[in-house]
Amino acid sequence: MIDVTHQINAVRRRVGTRVLEAGEARVVTISQTYDATIDDVWDACTNAERIERWFLPISGELRLHGHYQLEGNAGGTIQQCDPPKSFTATWEYGGDVSWIEVRLSADPEGGTRFELEHISHVDDERWAEFGPGAVGIGWDMGLVGLATHLSSGAAVDPQEGAAWAASEEGKRFMSLSSQRWSEASIAAGTDPEQARAAAQRTMAAYTAEPSE
């Protein structure tokens, strides 16, 4: 499906905090530069027909103040939109509300830099248990789809994607992603032993066999 080592190394990951009206929030940032124009990347991220080709089927109104719903996943409201540079939206799932901010910019070395921030209020106990990889691995998997789509123009077959994620190669990708998010957490000040333990728990959750 994709060169695992190349994709892992192509992505930049950062962990931080931000103070919101409701208090301090955790911020997970993921970015990658693509060999594509900013208009093409923008269209891939905001056109419902193309989002389905690399991420998930999406319904709703993809416009300012419109509501969207990803099939079997999060929904929310688009709060800000500045084509083709940025948009922000709520990310509502399982009764929790967080936020995503997507920014596109020209990379000095060519291509378009995609950056996504996922901002959420996570209690200390839950953060200590799973760390940034809880959402970070999922976004890493999303960027695999985007990279594949932008490089080939083809749609990512959901069944093939699920089979790849369950394969040894897919598990190796998630393991490397979990490790890199652990390193980002340590760089942000987390105790190394705690960060690595959280990464192991997150990886176990992602690779657990579904119950019948």
Automatic annotation (TrEMBL):
SUPFAM superfamilies: Bet v1-like. It comes from the Bacteria. It holds the Pfam family AHSA1. InterPro entries: ASHA1/2-like_C (IPR013538), START-like_dom_sf (IPR023393). Residues 35-149 form the Activator of Hsp90 ATPase homologue 1/2-like C-terminal domain. CDD domains: SRPBCC_CalC_Aha1-like_6. Belongs to the AHA1 family. This is SRPBCC family protein. It comes from Salinactinospora qingdaonensis.
